[in-house]
Write a structure and sequence with these properties.
The protein is built from 10 helices and 11 strands. It is about 40% helix and about 20% strand. Helix 1 packs across helix 2 (about 20-25) and helix 2 packs across helix 3. It is α/β, with parallel strands linked by helices. It has helices spanning about 5-15, 20-25, 30-45, 60-80, 100-105, 105-110, 130-135, 190-195, 210-220, 260-275, and strands spanning about 50, 55, 90-95, 120-125, 140-145, 155-170, 180-185, 205, 225, 235, 245-255. Helix 8 (about 190-195) links the parallel strand 7 and strand 8. The strands form 3 sheets. Strands 3, 4, 5, 6, 9, 10 and 11 form a 7-stranded mixed beta sheet that branches. Strands 1-2 form a two-stranded antiparallel ribbon. It has a two-stranded parallel ribbon with strand order 7-8. It holds the Pfam family HTH_1.
Length: about 280
């Protein structure tokens, strides 16, 4: 497969369209289209769904990870050969993180990384039970996930557990069946796991942002599970002394990369300081 065609394919998937990929690569949309057609002819499969945003087909998903790995290794090889960051640009790192880790402990890991090589982070957010899906598709090269079984082609290392407390504003909680339950989104099952009773069907509010979720709990919209470090002020535990621990793992591409090794070290160090 042609390296230029693979790089163009990665740009289309990353940027979301042929026009955006053309701008990122400083070529014409016609050139992008020709390269994708040539790659699809070489593979013998349609690789890109021409949707908004553009998405890889099932056949294309197999090439998303390959194109990302080649781009990363090529960048590192050029840096090593030249003895300085290649071309003055930044190495793109795509990671997927659950919302509460992103809010509490993950970002300090990125700040702790060395200044060289210069990195450009593409951070995706998803529920910890679903973050590994982006590893499977090749969209992300590393993930904070609740899944302890390594995705094919990846390594997995334990990070520790994030501890959650079930809390509400004073006077709000009157019972699991009657008090509204606040969820981050429809993938969020933490509150249901804490209740652990399928017969309980309370009113539900969906608040799809971690900071807004916490504010909704503090304002008395309902009860919810908050990471222990954020349980401050006049919030009260609705079941005093009881908590829910969610084990987290770091999964990343199985490849010899100095950038991934440095990122893994920084993430593990940040996790040791913040998680149980």
């Amino acid at each position: 497969m042609d390296a230029q065609q693979l790089a163009t394919f990665e740009a289309v998937i990353t940027e979301g369209s042929f026009d955006a990929a053309a701008r990122a690569l400083h070529v014409t949309p016609s050139a992008v289209s020709q390269r994708i057609k040539a790659l699809e002819q070489a593979v013998g499969q349609v690789l890109v769904r021409r949707t908004k945003p553009a998405e890889p087909t099932e056949a294309g998903q197999a090439l998303v990870r390959l194109s990302g790995q080649i781009a990363l290794l090529e960048r590192e090889a050029l840096d090593a050969a030249r003895g300085a960051p290649a071309g003055g640009g930044r190495t793109r790192i795509s990671v997927v993180v659950n919302a509460d880790s992103l809010l509490t402990w993950f970002l300090p890991a990125l700040v702790a990384l060395p200044a060289e090589p210069a990195l450009s982070f593409d951070i995706h957010q998803d529920d910890q039970d679903h973050t590994a899906d982006l590893l499977r598709s090749g969209t992300a090269m590393a993930a904070v996930t609740a899944q302890d079984v390594a995705v094919q082609g990846c390594r997995v290392e334990p990070l520790g557990s994030m501890r959650y407390r079930a809390v509400a504003a004073p006077g709000v909680f009157t019972g699991f069946a009657s008090t509204p339950m606040i969820l981050l989104n429809r993938k969020d099952r933490l509150q249901h796991r804490f209740v652990n009773d399928p017969a309980v069907t309370p009113p539900i509010h969906y608040v799809p942002a971690s900071a807004a979720f916490e504010q909704a709990v503090r304002l008395g919209l309902g009860w919810g599970m908050l990471p222990e470090p954020t349980v401050t002020g006049d919030l009260v535990e609705i079941v005093p002394g009881r908590h829910l621990d969610v084990p987290l793992y770091w999964q990343y591409w199985r490849m010899e990369s100095t950038v991934l090794a440095a990122l893994t070290s920084a993430v593990k160090q940040a996790a040791r300081a913040a998680l149980h």
